Automatic annotation (TrEMBL):
One of its GO terms (molecular function) is isomerase activity. The keyword Ribosomal protein does not apply. Residues 114-327 form the Radical SAM core domain. Pfam families: Radical_SAM. The modification N6-(pyridoxal phosphate)lysine is found at residue 341. It catalyses: L-lysine = D-beta-lysine. This is L-lysine 2,3-aminomutase. Its cofactor is [4Fe-4S] cluster; pyridoxal 5'-phosphate. Gene3D superfamilies: Aldolase class I (3.20.20.70).
Length: 344
């Protein structure tokens, strides 16, 4: 190889390394600079007449710039704004709305692991998110008890290793993609060492609310593992699936990674046939398949989002009438004592 060719190759390697580093730092910087003050958001949207009810410090306000750019200025009923803005209804005490509505804590044999279903386990990989959705079913979860360092995850890896019936692991949180590429890659490597594991599933909202998180480093980690990766993202409204979000979803799909979406049925946000048709259509247009439409988990502070099951069934009938079969999600509810999602 002559000197000119060698120099060109080295330059290309340096450029790729720099681009990877920049991509990694960009999403982290965006997360650091996310909006944490409802007043500032409302002022930016021209909605200073709205007075949010500031919530307790254990569930603060948080929304990144990319998600804000998709909100409509001057619209107090914007469906993205209503998902993240604290309101006084969150302080209401409503019967049968619980701090642990899906019984995660009673299904946790070791800290950081939830084992509800025979063949799969869920890991609480992080207590952090890029957005604090006000209906979050883990808004009261004791994240401080979950492992943090790779060393502290050893009991979980050993527990999975002792359960040969488990062939799938779900990385959840919080949000697993708040881990950087290096830490996430190390966790994937450790899980891939467990011989009976075959699939690794990521439950993440970051490709929707912080699309820059879909880095080349992340895609490389998913490509090189022997485990089959599956992405389950979380978008609730068609207005979320635009611009950089649509690009990020396409990147995942075109990297050969199955991408599914689970939405939550939310009052005043997506509880209409038109809203759900639009969401499902935009998803399939970028290669992401509608997976679940979840009935709201009855968590304390979210009762004002609940839609009746009867209305949910009406919406599903409308989806089946207006969409191809593959574009229609399953309408489900998470019942703690059942072995899986219960179809409604």
């Amino acid at each position: 190889m002559n000197k000119t060719a060698r120099t060109a190759i080295l330059q290309e390697q340096r450029t790729n390394t720099l681009e990877k580093a920049n991509s990694e730092s960009n999403w982290q910087l965006e997360l650091v600079n996310a909006c944490r003050d409802p007043d500032k958001l409302l002022s930016r949207l021209g909605l200073t007449e709205i007075l949010p009810a500031y919530m307790a410090a254990d569930f603060p306000f948080l929304v990144p710039e990319s998600f804000i750019r998709r909100m409509k200025i001057g619209d107090p009923n914007d469906p993205l704004l209503k998902q993240v803005l604290p309101v006084h209804y969150e302080n209401d005490v409503v019967p049968n709305f619980l701090s642990d509505p899906v019984a995660d804590l009673t299904a946790s044999p070791v800290p950081g692991m939830v084992h509800k279903y025979v063949n799969r386990v869920l890991l609480i990989t992080s207590g952090s998110c890029a957005v604090n959705c006000r209906y979050c079913f883990r808004r009261h979860f004791p994240y401080s008890e979950a492992p943090r360092s790779l060393e502290s995850w050893k009991p979980v890896f050993e527990e999975i290793g002792n359960r040969p019936e488990v062939d799938e692991v779900i990385l959840s949180g919080g949000d697993p993609l708040t881990l950087n590429d290096r830490r996430l890659g190390l966790m994937i490597e450790k899980l891939a060492e467990i011989p009976h594991l075959q699939r690794i599933r990521f439950h993440s909202r970051l490709p929707i609310v912080l699309p820059s998180r879909v880095t080349e480093g992340l895609l490389n980690a998913l490509r090189k593992t022997r485990l089959q990766p599956i992405f389950v993202v979380h978008a609730n409204h068609g207005n979320e699936i635009v611009d950089d979000c649509a690009t990020a979803l396409r990147r995942l799909v075109r990297a050969g990674i199955p991408v599914l979406n689970q939405a939550v049925l939310l009052r005043g946000i997506n509880d209409s046939i038109n809203a759900q048709v639009d969401l499902c259509t935009r998803l399939v247009n970028v290669g992401a398949m509608p997976y679940y439409l979840n009935q709201l988990d009855r968590v304390q502070g979210a009762a004002h989002f609940e839609v009746s099951v009867e209305r949910g069934r009406e919406i599903m009938a409308g989806l089946r009438k207006n969409l191809s079969g593959y574009a229609v999600p399953r309408y489900v509810v998470d019942v703690p004592e059942c072995d899986g999602k219960t179809e409604l």
